[in-house]
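BUG: 3D viewer hangs when loading the predicted structure for this chain

Environment: internal workstation, default settings.
Expected: structure renders.
Actual: progress bar stalls at 90%.

Input used:
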Amino acid sequence: MASSSQDKTLVLFNYDWDQAGFAAQAKTWPHLNDGFDLFSFPSNAHLAWFDMERFVARWAKRAARTGVIAVVSNHEQFGVLAAALLAERMGWPGTPVNAVLACQHKLYAREVLDRVCPEANTRHARLQAAYGEDVPTDLTYPLFVKPVKAAFSVLAREVNSTSELYQHTRFGAWELWVIRHLVEPFERVCAKRLPTAGTAHSLMLEQAVTAPQHCLDGYVYNGKVHRLGVVDVEMYPGTQAFMRWDYPSRLPSAVQDQATGVAARFLKEVGFTHGLFNMEFFHDPVTGKLTVIEFNPRLASQFSDLYQRVDGLQLHAYALALAHGQDPATVPKLRPTAGAAASFVYRHFDPARQPHLPDELQTRVFHEAYPDALLFTFPKSKGSVARDYKWLGSYRYGIVHLGGATAHDLRRRCEVASSLLGWSAPYADLHHGAVPSSHPQTESIS
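Structure tokens produced before the viewer hung:
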């Protein structure tokens, strides 16, 4: 399927699940990498001087002499927009720039939904206060507050009073520096290309929603929307933090069709004619109401492994095929290895508690017992952990991917695998104080 061995794909901000996913395709789709890791030092020091337009211009000059003829990225913060800009500049296949901007500017996306799918929207407004200013006193709670442009749900949470909102919007000088540098590359492009959206240097408010959460994954090719599947979300009891992603979904096919219809209307309206997408949404099983949370104009990389285990789909190969203008439906399927799969998230909610990270022996025993598993650990400095608690409400210290013959078998395997690592299996009935959670955080979807 790929072009000649001399032709390469440029993969931008290629880390974590993407690094593994694209590496598995390297023989068929040779590629080069560029972009820094936001979560590791000293790589993330590049944030201080990153300029997206200059970054794109440099690659426009380098492409021919490096053999690059296509570009792809699943990196929400910088990579997706940079890839769209470079593809446009070079005349390569890619997601239209304005479609990426429309998805990533969360307030503008809500305004689009008001036009085309009001029944799938929720009440929303810009927070009329700059960073650090006093907040309005005439709001009705509970509310969900989140950045107009962000990834990993930094600063996204439910608030229940003016004092909570006020405390949530107090930032130190270092925090403000990080926030502004994360948003500014997007802000510069958006101000030129989609000025009606307004500034992205802002927080926004949404009506809080209490309902199960799901993720629709799909792609658009030749302007037609294709559904790949739906992933179910489970939260830690009484929190807004992800505990587990399960595939395949337990949602009825009619609801999955409903979600696909909403996505098709939104994507058509914003001119999303090419590329992978992910739509996060709530579905209330009692009322039947479907509420969009947000659109991500890229592959949800963390789910790629789940689709491969259950359906044999190589979604990173899909991303590469699209980058070269090829139909993802022509990508060969692998033999499925599981009837159910999940991405298990391990986290602490008590800042005074230090998580156990497996040592070399535990890690070796784990992989010997579960050679099909993926294991990620996230050791961080005390300062970074403290910032996670402030911005996210918890510290995510590990993720495990497993498959099983059935959902029951998957749970059994997870419980044993977790014990080998010294961790508690992420299932709600194993935790105390379970209550329904409302509006979600999304920091772990990569």
